[in-house]
Amino acid sequence: xxxxxxxxxxxxxxxxxxxxxxxxxxxxxxxxxxxxxxxxxxxxxxxxxxxxxxxxxxxxxxxxxxxxxxxxxxxxxxxxxxxxxxxxxxx
Length: 91
Prior knowledge:
Acts as a transcriptional regulator. Probably redox-responsive. The apo- but not holo-form probably binds DNA. 47% of the residues lie in helices and 0% in strands.
């Protein structure tokens, strides 16, 4: 039996250019119980990385379409992504 699936590498190839590729993921994902000033400081650090990243837009689109529930993706928090999804659904 032959399948006609296409390789999915092109779906992920943007990650090879990501500014965060070799970074510790803890910059982008909150530890349990993180709140307030510590959370904002970590998020600001992540956004700074995303701000200089050549693939922040594909990263953000990926997080939206795959409904990533946690972390900073393409410079956007999970709360910002949820809001964006809700706005898209209202249209």
